[in-house]
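Run log, item B.
One chain of 612 residues. Sequence copied directly from the ordering sheet:
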Amino acid sequence: MKHFIAIIVITAGLLSTALQAQVTCTAKAPGQVTAGQAFYLSYELNEKADKLPAVDFANFKYAGGPSLEISTSTNVINGRVSVTQSYSYTYTMIANKEGTFTLPAVTFTVKNQQVKSNPLTIVVTAASQNQQANDNRQSAPTAQGFNKDDFFIKAFVSNANPYVGEQAIVSYKLYLGPQTYQYGNVNITSRPIAQGFWTYDLNPKDGNVPRKEEIIDGKKFTVIDLYSIAVYPQKHGKLTVSPLETDITVQVLVQRARSNDIFDFFSDPFFGGNRAQNIDLKLSSNAVSIHAVELPKANKPDEFSELVGDFKLNAKLSRDKLAANDATNLTVTVSGSGNLQYIEPLNFNFPSDIAVHDPVVRDNINVSLSGVSGSRTFEYVLIPEVEGSYSIPAAAFVYFDKQKKTYVTLHTPEFTLEVEKGQSSNAVSFNPNKTDIKVLGSDIRHIKTNNKLQIQKAQFFLSSFYWICLFAPVMILIIFIILLRKKIEEKKNIALLRDKKASKTAKKRLRKAEKLLHNKQNEAFYIEISKVLWGYISDKFHIPLGQLSLETAHQKLSERNMQENSINEFINTLQDCEYVRFAPSADITPDRMYERTFNFIAKIERELKNKN
């Protein structure tokens, strides 16, 4: 039995050793390089790495990578077929100075196992001037086919000769040439100035910008509706709308020149060795000239509203029979397409015995890329003071019809008010002299002037204010003690405190990451995003920082009954964040990484809130 147990122990040890020996990592690099010249440092593994190391070596500068290359080999021995795969992670490095240096071993994580590479010794020699110039020519990327003239902004006007007060739409379209891979960071630095115009901003509030494709001189352009305004000239003659200026970053595909380096074989232009390059552009549109036409002076009505367009007029009374000192509402609505906010209240001739308040103005204006339309409503409150029958004459609204090229007059109906005597109506007709006041009721008397008036002192004792002053300090003290005890209890529970502060701390770190993103500090951005994810998981699920790992995070999330897709989303986001630091990818941009991190935290907060 003892021999049997010994055999099992030895066998288990051998199997464990064999399993550990299955994963290998070999470092490869040229034995001699030139100072300032880029070279490739490769690490070959027979298993795919779960976590990549940072290649931060003294006397060497990290210049890019890693790029992953997977190769498969098939062997047939004695009729048995074996298939093996190798994974090569290649970094681009640059030697800073001449000398003999050793690259220390790095550690890869493969299936929760730490695998170390072999160290490398590299001799760095000085570069001659001719070689430096040649290297610069070979390594400099060229944006083949890039033409700055294929990127421009063009301004269009719907009507270059409108009447004074007539709507014209000025649209600014951004043209991106066929070299564009993608674009971003569109920042309008100077908006158009329209002096002598009344303007409306027509741009959609939701940020959805229409785009299409156009063929110009055989080239396919992406056309984006960048900005639009509606302008209404306020005087005749030549008027100018200034250019729109913007900064934009476009990404184009560039090709590298041919290289004699065997490692740069697939970057040769013959094999389509392209990469994306960001180009910052400052673009400015053309100015827009508009010649406003003066409106006809012949047959111009006195009531003309100075509006040009197509309008309708509607007016109604809320009730036409009421008692004296009661109120009724007169609602007047002007609707159509034109400069609606320029409409003034109509000139009604109300009877003198009807008290009229200034109208309440309500706008219902719709703006779109096609222009401005909607309605403006005026609501008058009418209070007749004396019984009787009153007539409210019709009021006129005059505008210029651009289609008919003539003035159009619209009228409200003529309203009649029937006013009955109110229960407490005491009508008075007034003249400046007191003796001329005629009393129509029975409760109006002349003001007495021979009375002696005294100021009555307010009593404080036992008043409402007295009791408030008496008990307010006691109530404030009780509330303060309750809040203080609650705060003390919360501080005792460190886990609860960390839980409450988790989302707040994560949002603070996300704001810092957002600043790094805007400053294009990608390396620092990805480090900060990693801190956001690990810190949030540590605080929210009470995991000490020393015990943090993908396994413990997965376990804690599962224990809190988190959805499996949420757990996988966290792990994938963190792995992509670590990977993209060393292997930039077009599919995983900093903007996308920021959005994924923000959405993950918001999703976890919603799930926990629903469970609670």
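Observations after the first pass:
- DSSP finds eight helices and 32 strands in the chain.
- The chain has four domains: 23-139, 148-292, 304-420, 494-611.
Flagged for discussion on Thursday.
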